[in-house]
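Q: Convert this sequence to structure tokens.
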Amino acid sequence: MNNKMMLEAETKIAGTEKTMLDFWKWGFSNILTNNLRGIFAEYIVGSALGVVNQSRIEWDAFDLVYKGKKIEVKSSAYIQSWHTDRFSKVRFDIGEKKEYYYETYTYSDEPKRHADLYVFCLLKEKDVKLINPIDMTQWEFYVVLTKELDQHFPKQKSISLSSLNKTTQPSNYEQIKIMVDELCI
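A:
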């Protein structure tokens, strides 16, 4: 199977009567888990920008490419799948990373922020009974140029929501493309 091949829901799992849809429902239905919420956030942003025409690449130096700009997508939420009696602190990873080169199986020498801009995705619902990650009205999106992060938070590994609010304003799903387009000029 080709790594970049996009599977179809009806694709049979060889040697079984099961399909890929059966697997996806079993393994990837709880979008509140940290890893799936992050991947779902990448998909949300990619779909808003119209760039989900190929499979995502795990461990890439950035998540999406739109109009030649590299985009890093980060997510956070007040409620987690393992929710306890209090909300999680909203923080987003902005730490510098080494880039992995798939052709040579090596990493870059110096860590840095590889994207041109970041889209921070906050699943903002605070009611456990109402939270629904596939409801776009429960999300807020913050778009920031990497050069702004480098200027204001050069060595920080993460950024809080209050710090983020000092650099940009939240937008909704329909505004993601508008915000990214404005910054990509």
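The chain has five helices and eight strands.
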